[in-house]
Input
Amino acid sequence: MNELQLVLPKKEHEEMAKEMVAEFNKYNEMIPGGGGIDEFVDYQEWLAYQRLHHSTETVPKGRVPSTVYFLCDNEETTLVGIIDIRYELNDFLLKEGGHIGYAIRPHERREGYGSYLLELGLEKCLELGIEEVLITCDHDNLASIKIVENHLGELEDKVVLDDGNTLCRYWVRQEKRLRKSM
Output
C-alpha cells in the first residue's frame, strides 16, 4: 500500500472524482468524509468550496477549517478513497462528525485501504497538533468499527440521532497510538 498517497483534489482529478461519486450513487451510499463532493454537480465549484475551508478567515459560517484529500496511486490515475480532516470541532462535529470522516470506494473495499487511509489521516491530525482525535461511525458499520479500534480508538459512547440512527463515538489518543508503534 506504499504506492498510495494523500493528494489535494485538483482540476486534473475531475473524471476520477465523478466516477467515484457515480460508484457511491450506484450503491445508494453517501460519501462520509467527502466534503460534500456528492452534493455538487460541478466539480470546479466543489474545489472552490473546499479551498474556502482551508483557513479560518474564509471558512463558511457554521463550518470549521478542514482539508479534504484523495487517496490515490503515485501517478494519480486511480482514486481509491477520500478523507476530510477537520482541524477543530463545533457542536455538530462533537456529537456526530468528529475530526475525521473517510470513505473507500465500494469496489476497493476489503483490501486494507480503509486502515491505511485512517493511518494517513491520523498522521495529518498529528501534524496539525490534534492530540485527541474524535472519529464517529454508524453502530452497524462493523468494518469501520474494526478499523478505528485497530488504531486504538476508545469507545466513549453511542449516540442516538434524531433520525433514529446510532453513532459510535471513538477517541484516538495520538500519544498512545505512537507508543504502540514503537
